[in-house]
């Protein structure tokens, strides 16, 4: 089994503290809510507990809006010996599993005119679902394409990005089938 990282590990610098703050705010809000239910409080104490419940809840929800997209985007591709892919976020948590026999299309989006931009990799699956990566540079996209065994000739310009024809992936790499590519 081999793992190909997309090279974006700088998320640890800001994302992990944001996750920790979100968890802290949620814990404070939960403690305030439990205190409201459990304790016999005066009106002033209840008002303080509601304030302690409200602001951390608002801050936790705002942070979760920022945090979630990075937890749901893949930052590495783990290729099993049979050719199946396990897409993992930057924390190493699996986001999606693509079996070797499933048809897929690899797409590099918004990479800039000469591959000098910063875009995303998208894996379009046979059922119509799409898995998106964290933002990567054109050079990292080329390194990923090469590490997965896609020749440069397999990439075709489409919609401002680069994409492969529909294909399956096995232990030797991508397998383009004429009948599959005609779809």
What does the model show?
This protein has 183 residues and is α+β, with helices and mostly antiparallel strands. It has helices at 11-38, 43-72, 138-148, 178-181, and strands at 2-5, 76-79, 85-88, 94-98, 104-109, 118-125, 130-132, 136-137, 156-158, 161-163, 168-170, 173-175. Strands 5, 6, 7, 8, 9 and 10 form a six-stranded antiparallel beta sheet that branches. Strands 1-2-3-4 form a four-stranded antiparallel beta sheet, with helices on one face. Strands 11-12 form a two-stranded antiparallel ribbon. A hairpin with an 8-residue loop joins β5 (104-109) and β6 (118-125). The longest helix is centred in the N-terminal third of the chain and has 30 residues, at 43-72. The chain is elongated and about 75 Å long.
